[in-house]
Design goal:
Layout: H1 3-29, E1 34-36, E2 40-43, E3 46-49, E4 59-64, H2 71-88, E5 92-97, H3 101-111, E6 117-119, H4 125-128, E7 132-133, E8 137-138, E9 141-148, E10 151-159, H5 168-173
Parallel strand pairs: 4-5, 5-6
Antiparallel strand pairs: 1-10, 2-3, 4-9, 7-8, 9-10
Length: 190
């Protein structure tokens, strides 16, 4: 297939994806939110409630992260760090992981992360949200929450996985004819 012909075909696929995203937004707008309790998380200076993570915003992007042992979760968090100020201009943003606050702080400092982090260690938060447990293992993803007066509701959520929409790395690698070709993220590259 000639380059120009392939380019036009790919543009058509991208248009289909944009149309599908519009259908997804419409479905979200029609979805009844799920009530979530006001969990209490560990932070370096003590405890912090879920409701406190909203700050002055009505909505919160809560990232479910597997912690410092996961290079994929680190890849996603590195990417969020680059767009954090853009996202935080629209809604609050925080990352929850099973790591203790001190471990989170040390790892975040080493990576230059700027976003707030909380530890769900010792709580049922991650498992209640559908992102695993200590027994079955943690899973990565995102929940979008809204504060409505005295209650918190979840508007949407989705899991993270290689080749998903939440890391630009996958989409750039997809521009190569062979795609990622077995590439996997690492904590450091030589």
């Amino acid at each position: 297939m000639k380059y120009k012909q392939a380019s036009e075909k790919l543009a058509g696929y991208r248009k289909n994806i944009a149309e599908l995203r519009e259908k997804m937004r419409k479905t979200l707008a029609e979805t009844e939110p799920e009530e979530v309790r006001d969990y209490e998380f560990a932070v370096p200076d003590g405890k912090r409630k879920l409701s406190d993570l909203f700050g002055k915003r009505e909505e919160l992007f809560m990232i479910h992260n597997m912690g410092r042992r996961c290079p994929y979760c680190t890849l996603w968090a590195d990417g969020f760090n680059g767009v954090y100020h853009h996202l935080a201009d629209r809604a609050s943003f925080a990352i929850s992981s099973p790591d203790a606050p001190g471990v989170q702080q040390e790892f975040a400092a080493a990576r230059g992360w700027r976003f707030p982090m909380v530890s769900h260690q010792g709580t049922s938060f991650a498992s209640d949200m559908g992102y695993g447990s200590e027994d079955s293992g943690w899973q990565p993803g995102i929940s979008v929450l809204r504060r409505e007066k005295k209650r918190i509701v979840r508007l949407s959520d989705t899991g993270f996985h290689p080749l998903d929409d939440f890391s630009t790395v996958w989409h750039i690698l997809d521009l190569l004819p062979e795609g990622p070709a077995g590439w996997a993220p690492r904590f450091k590259y030589s």
